[in-house]
Amino acid sequence: MDLVAFISSLPWEDAFNVIWPAAQFVAGMALYSVFIFKFYRFIAKRDIFHIDYSKYGEDLWGTANKFVLFMFNIVEYILLFPLFVIFWFGAIAALLALLSKGQSIESILMISISVVTAVRVTAYYSEDLSRDLAKMLPFVLLGVFLVDMTFFSLDASVSTLLQIPAHWEKIAYYCIFVVLLEMVLRVANFFKQSIFPKKAEEKE
User: Fold this and answer.
1) Which end of the chain is more exposed for a tag (fewer CB within 10 A), N or C?
2) Per the domain annotation, does 66 fall within a domain?
3) Does the residue 41 lie in any domain?
């Protein structure tokens, strides 16, 4: 039997029933992977709001300009960074709620903020390390889901997600902690770059 005869002999009326579930998996995995790809590359950036200090010299005027720009950068982080923290925290908490099984809401919140904080801390050491850490949990959860689909329960996930707003005080404390830690890291990084500019440039 040649190839054409074999293909023509297939019951094509069943093709849709066979291909449609696979197509759904492909679409879901692709969309999830693209979202995680964009997500982890953004959260792992050390300088989310980038200001280039290198164009200013090392004289008194250049140092003053650097400091003024740095203070504007701090204000920018104080006003906008909390919004990003809430988004990152909510995204990871939602993933954990949807793709984990048997986790309490307290554990989900603590793990979520721990991941966000660890990613931000490691971003000041190495953005490559930070990216690896940021993408690890989402892709591990995807792997667990693909191996054992019983981990996914829509009713349980929705129930868990609906409990999150009730813990708004704990969420607020977590977010304040991340924002304050980010400010400390930025100040420390600014003085490190000011004292050791060549080493900072080589590392970047």
Assistant:
1) N
2) yes
3) no
